[in-house]
Amino acid sequence: MTVVLLGAAALIPEGPRAQNTKPVSTSWRTPWSYEGAKGPEHWGDLDPEYARCKAGTEQSPIDIRSAEKSDLPAIRFEYKNGPLNIINNGYTAVRVDYVHSGDFLIVGDKRYELTQFHFHRPSEEYIHGKPYDMVLHLMHVAGDGKVAGVAVLLKAGSANATIEQLWEHMPKTAGKSEEIGGVEVNPANLLPHKTGYYTYMGSQTAPPCTEGVTWFVLKTPVDISAEEITAFAKLYPHDVRPVQPLNGRVVKESE
Q1: Alpha-carbon distance 232 to 167, whole Å?
Q2: Which of its termini does the chain have fewer beta carbons within 10 Å around, N or C?
Q3: Phi and psi dihedrals of 182, rounded to 5?
Q4: CA 249 to CA 246: how far, in whole Å?
Q5: Cα distance between residue 126 and residue 79, in whole Å
Q6: What is the pLDDT of residue 10?
Q7: Rounded distance, CA 214 to CA 197, Å?
Q8: CA separation, residue 2 to residues 5, 132, 230 (Å)
Q9: Of the candidates 195, 165, 183, 244, which has an alpha carbon nearest to the alpha carbon of residue 73?
Q10: 51 close to 57: Cβ distance less than 8 angstroms
Q11: CA of 130: how far to CAs of 43, 72, 118, 123, 247, in Å?
């Protein structure tokens, strides 16, 4: 995920719904990787802009081993069908970008607009020391620039029609973006029916690892077929950042 996209989305005025016709998913100034000399343990040394990856104290993802039961506001999603603009950004194989989605995450009286969503395999988040088969990250930004990420844990089970639709259209070449005419996707179809969640303050999970991201990790996983997991793995067998230290942060859990 890139801070450029999130920042740009925050500055876009209200107007007609549109796709991002010029995705910036490949606009990192300095290349990085999930393995080797440019892997996660080296991100903070690759570029001064990535310093937070090494020096940050509220980094993501994390292993959620304990959480405080809290009286938290309900989380709601106002998602609907929208045009499909999909990119293989060379890092997370499938990413859907928006300029002005008109889709919103609502937590209490705070509204965040959906800017993009993408996938990791296995999940970056751990629950009680274990990852899930995959995870979906839906990234949002509020009018004041605050960023919120929603993590939907994915487990092997029955097929997901929306995942199948995304996989069918995903570009096989890194850096390629495709605007799929006549195809619409509703991200609501990727959500569980129950919206209990864990929440904590964290960061983006890729360079520049910007902090100040409010994460909502949904407790109920969503099914994805073994075949769909395998199809993703053929392009990206491992696209995850290791879990980061809590550094005293408190994870809260909705009742």
Answers
A1: 8
A2: C
A3: 75, 0
A4: 5
A5: 26
A6: 27
A7: 12
A8: 6, 24, 26
A9: 195
A10: no
A11: 24, 25, 21, 9, 20
Whether the model clears a pTM of 0.85, i.e. scores above it, the answer is yes
Taking the C-alpha atoms of residue 152 and residue 135, their distance in angstroms, rounded to an integer, is: 6
Would you say 72 and 177 are in contact if contact means Cβ atoms under 8 Å apart? no
Angle between helices 226-235 and 161-169 (to 10 degrees): 30
Tokens standing for residue 85? 């603009």
- In angstroms, rounded to a whole number, what is the distance separating the alpha carbons of residues 152 and 191? 7
Which residues face 138 on adjacent strands?
Answer: 117, 150
The pLDDT value given to residue 95 = 80
Spatial contact of 67 and 198, defined as CB atoms under 8 Å apart: yes
pLDDT, residue 28, reads 81
pLDDT of residue 112: 98
Are 217 and 136 in contact, with CB atoms under 8 Å apart?
Answer: no
**Could you state, in chain order, the average pLDDT of each consecutive group of 10 residues for the chain (255 residues)?**
27 31 55 93 97 98 97 96 75 74 95 95 97 97 97 98 89 61 87 97 96 98 97 88 97 95
| Helix H or strand E segment including 136 | strand 134-142
Tokens 């989305």 belong to 9
DSSP letter, residue 255: -
Instruction: Using the structure block, give the residue that is written with the tokens 């099914």.
Output: 223
Distance CA 51, CA 101 (A): 31
User: Which tokens is 99 given?
Assistant: 């300029």
Question: Which of left, alpha, beta for 209 (phi over 0: left; psi -120 to 50: alpha)?
Answer: left
**What is the DSSP code string of 239-252?**
--PPP---TTPPPE
